[in-house]
Design goal:
Blueprint: E1 8-10, H1 17-23, E2 26-28, E3 31-34, E4 42-45, H2 55-63, E5 68-71
Length: 79
Amino acid sequence: MSREFVIVVDSCSDLSTQLRNEHGIEYVRMGVVKNVGKENEEEVYASLDWEGYSNKELFDWLRNGMAVKTTQVSASEYH
């Protein structure tokens, strides 16, 4: 059965993998910049499946005073 539309959300939607799979929901990743304004600034991606870092790591960064910001979804994420 072909669908006439696709539901797409970004990585701050907080939808589980199971829910996304059950309903055919796609998602695109937002960027997350660590150490904002510092020499070792680094961009990683926000993933609904916590790929690359765990939710504990994210909250540890924040608790330890690391400057973190999100970026808008880039056009390349849609391909």
